[in-house]
Amino acid sequence: MAESKQEPIVTERLILRQIQPSDSEAVFAFTSLPSVMSYTSRKPHTEVHQVTTYLAERTSGPNIYNFSVCLKDSTNTVIGLLGSPSYPEIGYIFSPAYAGQGYATEALLAFTPALFAVMPVEQTLAEAHVDTENVASLKLLERCGWQRGEVEERAYTSPLLGLRDSVCYKIAREGYELEDMTKKEEEEAFVPDLR
Asked: Residue 2 domain-assigned?
């Protein structure tokens, strides 16, 4: 995997650190579960070497800012992945074994300002595309201050569920208002009728 100067993000109970090849076994434990992968465009992993490739894809290339989410325990247990595969989009996946304890919320609240700190300053928002039926993910984003936007019908194909709709959640960089950016996007997209 590519070398990076990505600094860890530390919270009260978590360490978000650079993804490492040694994370493959821990990540396999949850990406092999159909319940975890059903709202993604990937099949559940069936072998650890698939996870190694999956993780390598998340650490090489421009505008990538991805982390393994680890417990602050004696072994730094990997409980999820969180990051930006390409600015300004974010994504995450967590082990259900650690659900309901606030870890995903804690990680996303710490990650969001760190993402804005490394993104180009002209990128004033971040976005997450979530399956419209992935209730846990929708609630996570809302808890963390992300605002629900437009629904895209037939946005992606889940190998387990078929053709799926997604909803785009957005959050603005500190000092910006999401409503102002939405109006600006609409104005830039407006093409007057010159007939």
From this structure: no
Dihedral angle over CA of 146, 111, 33, 62, nearest 10: 100
Sign of CA dihedral 10, 109, 114, 83: positive
pTM summary value: 0.89
Whether the CB-CB separation of 58 and 19 falls below 8 Å is answered with yes
Per-residue pLDDT of the chain (195 residues; tens, 9 = 90+): 444 468 999 999 999 999 999 999 999 999 999 999 999 999 999 999 999 999 998 887 778 899 999 999 888 999 999 999 999 999 999 999 999 999 999 999 999 999 999 999 999 999 999 999 999 999 999 999 999 999 999 999 999 999 999 999 999 999 998 875 555 555 555 555 665
Token pair listed for 62: 């421009």
Q: CA neighbours within 13 Å on the CB side: how many for 99?
A: 12
Calculate ∠ Cα 7-56-116, nearest 5°: 35
Domain count along the chain: 1
Which residue segment(s) compose the domain that 53 sits in? 9-189
Has residue 194 been placed in a domain? no
The CATH number of whichever domain residue 36 belongs to comes to 3.40.630.30
